[in-house]
Amino acid sequence: VTLPHDDLGDAWRSARPAAVGHHLDTAACSRQSLRVLDAVAAHARHEAEIGGYVAEAAAAPLLRQGRAALAGLLGAAADDLAFVESATAALPLLLASLPLPLGAVVAAVPGEWGPNLAAFADRGLTVRPLPVDGVGRVDLALLPHALAADPPALVHLTPVASHRGVLQDTAAVAAACRGAGVPLVLDVAQALGHVDCDHGADAAYGTSRKWLAGPRGVGFLVVRPALAARLVPVSPALTPARWPAMGDLPPAQRLESREAHVAGRVGLCLAVGEHLAAGPDRVHSRLGALGRAARQILQGAGGWRIADPLDEPVAIVTLTPPDGVDVVAARARLLTSAAVVTTVTGPERAPGEMTGPVLRVSPHVDATLADFEALAAALAGLPA
Ligand SMILES: Cc1ncc(COP(=O)(O)O)c(C=O)c1O
């Protein structure tokens, strides 16, 4: 097995504090660079020196640039992007701002992220399953008919799932939605910084701390103009109002939280800059190769089985345990006895698709084959 762009892995690693052990947990939370950590700390310090709102005004040019760069990764413009706290905060905000009648239909794959399904239910929407193949990918042959026969109010798609290393053909789904005149909303929490996300979707939302390697507590919501024009004002309880200037803001930015972790937004802007400097195509191709390499090395280790298609070009790798092995205890043991950081992904993450917990392994570009070999050895050494 060989990996592309070792220089990228080396640069990414040397830009960060040294990891303790093997950090294979990007899908939960990545490792920030020293520059990002310093920028966040410097902004917080600046707030204490000159005042929070004065410091925010001073950071405006950087935030404007970061807003444009982040929106650009999603094929949108700076005006289309609102900074929010998380992906989880973004979806209810978007749904509350769309003039959908109760019972309106959202089409989504059966393996949709559980908390998103809860947000649809909370808003009184009905979820209809999109046709999928055996691994949960949208069936592109059946999709146009499914959309035309009884068009949903919107299609919601998570291009890279949290619970299984499966990549959707988002470009093809976007084309089918455009053909049917149905708006498309993307959850790019696991996709942005990992795979190409510039597909002209009407809205997209995600989070800073995963594949973009920005700070925790920051997220984003992009609504392109055609859909933004339909947004209705939501209760000030949901968007701390930007009272005086509200009317001057572009519609999508009216969704932005006014009081916020601005230092975190500064950090996200820097992290996006670092991602662009690294070259998104290079990052995507190394992450895809790392996912494939991890599956080759980990398949069968200690009796654990890969649950994803082996060649899937994403760096989310999931393993099902041997009979009788508790995944929570195994994950804890990997951490304490081998210093390997992973996640247990339980069925609540994708209640329509999962039947039991899996162990999720998600390297960033600094990972090496030696990290996967160490994990394979640790899996083989777990108590039966
Ligand atoms: C697919 C998906 N959507 C949404 C989220 C939620 O993101 P956040 O924790 O930033 O709200 C996650 C986080 O794991 C995720 O994997």
How would you summarize what this structure contains?
The protein is 39% helix and 12% strand.
Helical amount: 25-40%
How many strand segments? 13
Describe the largest sheet.
7 strands, mixed
Q: What portion of the residues fall into strands of 2 or more residues?
A: 5-15%
Secondary-structure element series: HEHHHEHEHEHEHEEEHHHEEHEEEH
SSE diagram, text form:
Blueprint: H1 6-14, E1 22-23, H2 34-50, H3 52-58, H4 60-73, E2 81-84, H5 87-97, E3 105-108, H6 114-122, E4 126-129, H7 143-149, E5 154-157, H8 170-180, E6 184-187, E7 203-207, E8 219-223, H9 225-228, H10 262-278, H11 280-298, E9 305-306, E10 317-320, H12 327-338, E11 340-341, E12 343-345, E13 358-361, H13 369-380
Parallel strand pairs: 1-11, 3-4, 3-5, 5-6, 6-7
Antiparallel strand pairs: 2-8, 7-8, 9-10, 10-13, 12-13
Helix pairs in contact: 2-3, 2-10, 4-10, 5-6, 7-8, 11-13, 12-13
Bound molecules: pyridoxal-5'-phosphate (PLP).
Pyridoxal-5'-phosphate binds next to helix 5.
